[in-house]
Amino acid sequence: MLRAEAKTQVGALELDVDLAIEPGRCLALVGPSGAGKTSVLRIVAGLLAPATGRVECAGEVWLDTSAGVNVAPELRRCGYVFQDYALFPHMNAWRNVAYALRDLARAERRTRAQSLLDQFGIGSLADAYPGNLSGGERQRVALARALALRPSALLLDEPLSALDVRTRAQATRELAGVLRDSGVPTLLVTHDFAEAALLGDHVGVIDHGELVQLGTAAELAANPQSAFVADFTGAVVLTGSAAAGEDGLTRVELDGGGSVQSTDSAAGRVAVSIYPWEISLEPPGHIATGSARNHLSAEVVSLTTIGNRVRVGLVSPHPLTAEITTAALDALALQPGTRVTATWKASATRLIGA
Predict the structure, then answer these.
(1) Which residues pair with 289 in a beta bridge?
(2) How many CA atoms lie within 13 A of 104 on its CB side?
(3) pLDDT, tens digit, for every residue of 108-131?
(4) Helix H or strand E encompassing 322
(5) Strands 294-306 and 339-344, how do they pair?
(6) Under 8 Å CB-to-CB from 319, ≥6 apart: which residues?
(7) Among the ranges 51-55, 72-76, 139-143, which has the highest mean pLDDT value?
(8) Rounded CA gap, 196 and 159, in Å?
(9) Averaged pLDDT for residues 149-169
């Protein structure tokens, strides 16, 4: 078990966190740049001393400001993977891994390093230098080094951000397997909710130094507790004023014009949350025959293809994003400037107190 709680000032940021991670589980902290994610990692690793706090891992107290305990970073059994991997450019792959094993005899270091590189599928690159490795290969060397000492906890700082799009998908699958098999608590930070959802057993959303919501990715997406969380999980967020409507629904008069209906109960100022894949597009003037209650006239402003799906940027005048199939794109003959009607159900319209 890894437990960490800390309160401190980091520049203009007031950091206040309290978290616990079970062995073999991964907590992914997600939030914008400057939210305090990396500062949490640095506190656990002993690279940043908070004003008050306590860090305990595998029964060992690494930090307790009330008792004057602050174990040096090199004595904390943390495997730390930095954002840029921080490999030594003048050392080949096996020596980078073996650097963490300086207390062992040279032959033992080489054997352990080679074994880890083999485990990550890059044993044949043991003598290669970082400058001659791809981004994915450097990532695997960094992970091997982090696991070399059989750490009590694994800390990952934006582990996929240095990879190109093509490499990232495979590296994500490999990393998920590493975390699953490591058997130690893992704390991972990222600015990408989709990445956090793939890698984390639980996801914590951090903003302005505060952990604003914690749960599984599905729980956060289904029940965001703030407009910030909804926006960060990929939802479209609109604002307006809610009041009781017809048929037991809530009607929201949107800022800037138009209205939508929701099965949620609310009154007064609210944020409206809808996920892009819940929005369908129809030609202007199309007579709706389904159960969708919400219809907003919109103009296409952008088209982004992602696999067999297309993200359609809209303005209604509210900014909207719909996610449709390529078949639907072709059927509607969409292009920037095309007028459409954005449609979705009242049950897909989540209301959050503003």
Answers:
(1) none
(2) 16
(3) 889 999 998 988 888 999 999 999
(4) strand 319-325
(5) antiparallel
(6) 236, 313
(7) 51-55
(8) 11
(9) 80
Coil, helix or strand for 313? Answer: strand
Alpha carbon 114 to chain centroid distance?
Answer: 32
Q: What are phi and psi of 192, to 5 degrees?
A: -110, 115
Q: Across the beta sheet with 236-244, what order do the strands follow?
A: 259-262, 250-254, 236-244, 268-274, 350-353
> Residue 311 CB: number of other CB atoms within 10 A?
15
Asked if residue 341 lies in contact with residue 282, where contact means CB atoms within 8 angstroms, the answer is yes
Alpha helices in the chain (DSSP H): 37-45, 93-98, 106-119, 135-147, 165-182, 193-199, 217-222, 227-232, 326-332
- Cβ atoms of 29 and 204 closer than 8 Å: yes
Asked if residues 119 and 113 have their Cβ atoms less than 8 Å apart, the reply is no
CB-CB contact of 18 with 27 (8 Å): no
Structure tokens, 339: 């007028």
Distance CA 352, CA 233 (A): 14
pLDDT tens across 212-228, in order?
999 998 888 888 888 88
For range 88-94, the mean pLDDT: 94
Would the pLDDT of 8 be above 90? yes
**Model pLDDT, residue 160:** 79
Supply the pTM of this predicted model: 0.79
Mean pLDDT over all residues of the chain?
89
CA 113, CA 286: separation in Å to the nearest integer? 64
Backbone φ and ψ of 42, nearest 5°: -65, -35
Quote the CA–CA distance of 217 and 220 in Å, as a whole number. 5
